[in-house]
Q: What sequence folds into this?
């Protein structure tokens, strides 16, 4: 029996939506995703010339999976737009002038977001500078692994990425569309495709439009999973809050902690009241969630157990985790600890036998399973800790589409023992593929 209360932050909705349109018809998006030149009646749009750029996914294994739920007769769809790679295939310099993201639902354009020149320049500068900095590390080193962990299997040009909206011949630029906005749509049909149009121009003033069709994968997790902890807890950093969605593998991850209310009305994750809710004590044992049993969300085979991060190095949550990780990384690498074990802390990776892989992170050292073990749903496999890149004790859970945690895509997860309808006391919420559109869910599990 579970009783839980849903708390939704309305601030999460503010910057998501493009401009709604009424009756615009869809551009053709038949076949597999790829670049094509938009045409209108009688040929090309006036003022456009032959194609100047190619547009494709930045990561070769990109999956664009929307979050959605049904509310009465309406579908709500929330999409993280993909990161794109643009290559100049012309013989002269071209300028990226405008990017339009159009959402299609039931064969019709439902919403549109337009990114103009100055904003494009800012996004390109920040994105490609960061990418080039990661590429400057030694081949196969920490930076290269971080690049793959963030973006999957990216295309890596030999000369790096262009850091402005001016692309020389054969030049590459990555554009992270999520830096402009997420895409949110509510209507009678679910959004099923994004049409992304890139407008470019050359020094002669000739313009070109190249469009890229992005099919939205209507994904519902295959496993019939259960929530991994018992007692009071908070499922936080949920996908709609965007906390994890910057990284492919973590896109739909959740963080489980425990927040209690004191008599004075304040909230805290530890037994010491404080104004900031989190990080209220310098002792991990003071935190309500610390040491809580972690249960397998489903049956499966244990593929990997990483226990190279000592609990003794993660006893003080007020030792800021970024500084702690920066200080400990070279020490632990020298001891042979993997970068995944350093960042994710002690973790377990389970193959659920259905193309989905569960990863449980930031655990204590006293993990109860080993690689090769078979587990049943509900088995205790470990205990909540504070190891790795952890702000304070919590369980980080992610569902992946591959056992290769470096390049895997994240997958949305729902839990069979969380009854969304009864939680909201509403018969109108129907099908969904996630823990609804909230940032935090307060849960009590028996």
A:
């Amino acid at each position: 029996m579970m009783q839980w209360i849903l708390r939704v932050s309305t601030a999460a909705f503010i910057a998501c939506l493009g401009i709604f349109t009424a009756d615009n018809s869809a551009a053709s998006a038949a076949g597999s995703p790829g670049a094509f030149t938009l045409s209108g009646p009688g040929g090309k749009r006036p003022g456009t010339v032959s194609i100047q750029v190619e547009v494709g996914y930045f990561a070769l294994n990109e999956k664009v999976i929307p979050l959605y739920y049904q509310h009465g007769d309406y579908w709500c769809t929330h999409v993280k737009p993909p990161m794109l790679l643009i290559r100049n295939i012309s013989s002269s310099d071209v300028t990226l002038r405008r990017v339009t993201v159009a959402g299609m639902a039931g064969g019709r354009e439902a919403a549109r977001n337009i990114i103009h020149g100055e904003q494009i320049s800012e996004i390109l500068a920040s994105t490609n500078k960061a990418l080039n900095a990661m590429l400057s590390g030694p081949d196969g080193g920490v930076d290269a692994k971080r690049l793959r962990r963030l973006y999957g299997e990216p295309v890596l040009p030999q000369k790096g990425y262009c850091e402005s909206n001016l692309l020389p011949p054969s030049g590459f630029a990555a554009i992270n569309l999520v830096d402009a906005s997420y895409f949110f749509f509510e209507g009678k049909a679910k959004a099923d495709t994004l049409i992304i149009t890139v407008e470019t121009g050359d020094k002669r003033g000739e313009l070109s439009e190249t469009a890229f069709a992005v099919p939205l994968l209507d994904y519902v997790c295959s496993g019939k999973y259960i929530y991994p902890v018992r007692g009071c807890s908070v499922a936080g950093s949920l996908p709609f809050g965007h906390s994890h969605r910057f990284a492919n593998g973590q896109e739909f991850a959740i963080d489980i902690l425990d927040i209690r209310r004191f008599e004075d009305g304040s909230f805290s994750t530890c037994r010491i009241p404080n104004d900031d809710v989190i990080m209220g004590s310098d002792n991990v044992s003071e935190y309500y969630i610390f040491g809580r049993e972690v249960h397998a969300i489903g049956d499966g085979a244990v593929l990997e157990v990483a226990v190279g991060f000592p609990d003794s190095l993660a006893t003080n949550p007020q030792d800021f985790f970024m500084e702690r990780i920066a200080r400990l990384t070279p020490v632990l690498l020298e001891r042979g600890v993997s970068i995944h074990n350093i960042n994710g802390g002690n973790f377990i990776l389970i193959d659920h036998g259905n193309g989905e892989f569960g990863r449980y992170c930031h655990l204590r050292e006293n993990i109860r399973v080993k690689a090769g073990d078979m587990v049943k749903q509900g088995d205790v496999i470990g205990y909540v800790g504070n190891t790795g890149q952890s702000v304070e004790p919590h369980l980080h859970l992610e569902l992946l589409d591959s056992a290769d945690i470096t390049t895997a895509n994240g997958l949305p997860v729902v839990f069979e023992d969380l009854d969304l309808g009864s939680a909201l006391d509403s018969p109108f919420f129907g099908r969904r593929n996630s823990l609804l559109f909230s940032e935090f869910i307060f849960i009590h599990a028996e």
Summary: The two ends are 6 Å apart (CA to CA). Residues 234 and 442 are 5 Å apart (CA to CA). Residues 1-49 have pLDDT under 50 and may be disordered.
